[in-house]
Task: inverse folding
């Protein structure tokens, strides 16, 4: 799958599953689309809030992509924690996001991609948020 | 519109018109066979739904044990004819108690995907007031390492009610395709040890629960992970071959008897309904042929495959969710035309949440309308002899065996897990399916065509009760304080010894669950005995 020309550098994305639900299909499709578009992906798999935060601090990513397979609590607290960093990377969220959870996230300025979202729209958001065109 | 080449999802070219000449030669001779006779092309039973309506069999569970119990009773009282227990994915799949640090770190998610079932006490709560002696059940234990615990708890509850286990009917699952391919837990015992547990279950049921399906292969989980119809069939047979070969190697039971017990399997129907109808018919032919040709089994019942169908969860859309009622109906129709023995229809809210009570009820009503308002049940294999369906069936038998041979040539099902081959196939298929929708090669109403800016019928997302975690913590504390510690210790030692020996673990698992062992304690024994599986693939 190709989304435009590959960029001259690779913005780095830390991706993680916040829940303990082991279905990998959704996050893998998004990971694949972002790689194809030239992003470098650090995939954490199922990770706790602390594990995700240390990866974000260590990897200094241009973007954080969270997969939600449960309630929003954990994602909201991560958005909060990440915002407290000195130069916080933007966060996007994908997965099983109810319509009301989507509104909650968007009110916080977080792009949310429920099932059926176009991959091109995810890639476009990732490019916009990392100032990459 | 240009009349371009059309294909089934697995890539078989579809012609505008079919005739007798399109039926593969080797398949033609099967057209004169009867339903209820090998190779069961036309159906597992002679009169099919006239005498045996398909079982309405929906997955159900969330929140606290009492929530799951109430939902099961609701479904049974509305016409469900069996029930499937769904355990909380966070705790059950990983064999974690609710106070495991991994669970504590995500406590808000507990109980969202199934009821939190920590010990036999929770089983007793769920099953209280349900006539399990006369109702066919799936005890949960979808994941391999969870199967022995879930089944043993269920059987012990039955035994405590005075039910003769030799007469108890139902099914376990312990599915390799979910466990090692579609839904990989953070900690999971390696596949070779998983195979040992499944063989233990098969042998234990053979001796003690002859009417129980000890393990049920769910090729569904391969299909919903990205594999196509040919691969789903090849995977099913290769998976069965691991069990049959393992039993032959142990030498304790006749292979025909094992084939009977594990011949209750699960396939998926999706929106490609002709291919899926053909797939169910092809699966029966392949099962019958494999047993005869590879294992020399003549026993007719052993060669008679019974199929549970679940409609594709992945076909259900988040956008315009009420459209999913139509999708559910079409996929259910495919299952019936393919001759399924039992059926679960995904909820119309599948892409958003676990089913609300209303979505669950709709899944029943779809099946009841099909069973009662049409003549669907009056004629056996109504599409038998259709040039198209027989052409597809014949091709899928050939190509399904092609995938099977490819897997066997690499050393078998587990070898293809260990080499990463199976993951690569699934990921490739999954990416391809996403690409097809992305580029409008495959239409998805509401997703890539006929979209709404604002959906006129947004639905409320069902949410499991928030108190599931707190209540589970309370039950765990109470459990630990009120068990007979000596009995428990002895039982756990017995289980440890069984795990590291070559004896069957199930007697020790029965004793441990009766001694009120917790899920996490079983997990600890398994992890120390077997270690944890390293998935040989970087997603």
Result:
């Amino acid at each position: 799958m190709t989304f435009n020309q590959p960029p001259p550098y690779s913005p780095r994305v830390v991706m993680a599953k916040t829940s303990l639900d082991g279905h990998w299909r959704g996050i893998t499709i998004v990971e694949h689309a972002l790689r194809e578009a030239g992003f470098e992906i650090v995939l954490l798999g199922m990770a706790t809030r602390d594990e995700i935060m240390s990866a974000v601090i260590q990897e200094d990513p241009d973007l954080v992509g969270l997969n939600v397979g449960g309630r929003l609590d954990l994602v909201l607290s991560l958005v909060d924690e990440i915002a407290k960093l000195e130069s916080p990377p933007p966060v996007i969220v994908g997965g099983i996001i109810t319509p009301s959870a989507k509104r909650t996230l968007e009110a916080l300025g977080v792009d949310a991609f429920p099932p059926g979202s176009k991959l091109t729209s995810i890639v476009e958001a990732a490019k916009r948020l990392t100032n990459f065109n | 519109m240009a009349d371009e080449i059309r294909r089934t999802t697995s890539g078989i070219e579809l012609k505008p018109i079919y005739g007798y000449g399109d039926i593969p030669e080797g398949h033609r001779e099967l057209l004169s066979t009867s339903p209820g006779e090998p190779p069961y092309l036309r159906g597992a039973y002679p009169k099919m739904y006239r005498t045996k309506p398909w079982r309405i069999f929906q997955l159900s569970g969330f929140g606290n044990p009492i929530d799951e119990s109430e939902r099961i009773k609701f479904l049974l009282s509305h016409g469900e004819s069996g029930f499937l227990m769904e355990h909380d994915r966070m705790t059950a799949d990983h064999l974690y108690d609710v106070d495991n640090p991994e669970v504590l770190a995500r406590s808000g998610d507990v109980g969202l995907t199934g009821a939190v079932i920590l010990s036999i006490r929770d089983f007793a709560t769920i099953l209280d007031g349900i006539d399990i002696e006369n109702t066919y059940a799936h005890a949960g234990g979808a994941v391999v390492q969870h199967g022995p615990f879930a089944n043993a708890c269920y059987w012990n509850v039955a035994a405590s009610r005075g039910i003769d286990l030799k007469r108890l009917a139902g099914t376990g699952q312990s599915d390799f395709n979910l466990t090692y391919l579609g839904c990989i837990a953070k900690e999971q015992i390696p596949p070779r040890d998983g195979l040992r547990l499944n063989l233990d279950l098969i042998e234990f049921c053979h001796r003690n629960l002859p009417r129980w399906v000890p393990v049920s292969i769910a090729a569904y989980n391969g299909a919903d992970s990205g594999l196509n119809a040919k691969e789903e069939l090849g995977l099913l047979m290769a998976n069965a071959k691991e069990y049959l070969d393992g039993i032959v190697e142990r030498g304790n039971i006749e292979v025909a008897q094992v084939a009977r017990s594990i011949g209750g399997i699960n396939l998926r129907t999706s929106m490609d309904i002709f291919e899926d109808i053909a797939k169910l018919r092809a699966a029966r032919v392949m099962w019958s042929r494999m047993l005869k040709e590879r294992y020399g089994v003549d026993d007719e019942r052993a060669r008679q495959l019974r199929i549970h169908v679940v409609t594709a969860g992945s076909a259900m859309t988040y956008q315009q969710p009420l459209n999913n009622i139509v999708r559910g109906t079409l996929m259910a129709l495919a299952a019936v035309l393919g001759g399924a023995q039992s059926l679960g229809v995904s909820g119309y809210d599948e892409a958003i949440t676990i089913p609300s009570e209303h979505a669950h009820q709709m899944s029943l009503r779809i099946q009841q309308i099909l069973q009662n308002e049409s003549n669907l049940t009056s004629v056996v294999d109504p599409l038998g002899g259709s040039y198209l369906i027989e052409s597809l069936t014949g091709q899928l038998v050939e190509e399904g065996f092609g995938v099977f041979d490819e897997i066997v040539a690499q050393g078998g099902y587990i070898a293809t897990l260990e080499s990463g081959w199976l993951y690569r196939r699934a990921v490739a298929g999954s990416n391809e399916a996403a690409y097809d929708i992305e580029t409008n090669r495959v239409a998805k109403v509401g997703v890539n065509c006929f979209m709404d800016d604002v959906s006129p019928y947004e639905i409320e997302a069902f949410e499991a009760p928030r108190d599931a975690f707190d209540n589970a913590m309370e039950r765990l504390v109470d459990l630990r304080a009120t068990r007979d510690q000596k009995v428990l210790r002895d039982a756990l030692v017995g289980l440890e010894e069984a795990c590291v020996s070559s004896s069957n673990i199930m007697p020790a698992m029965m004793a441990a669950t009766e001694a009120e062992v917790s899920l996490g304690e079983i997990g600890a024994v398994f992890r120390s005995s077997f270690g944890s599986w390293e998935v040989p693939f970087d997603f």
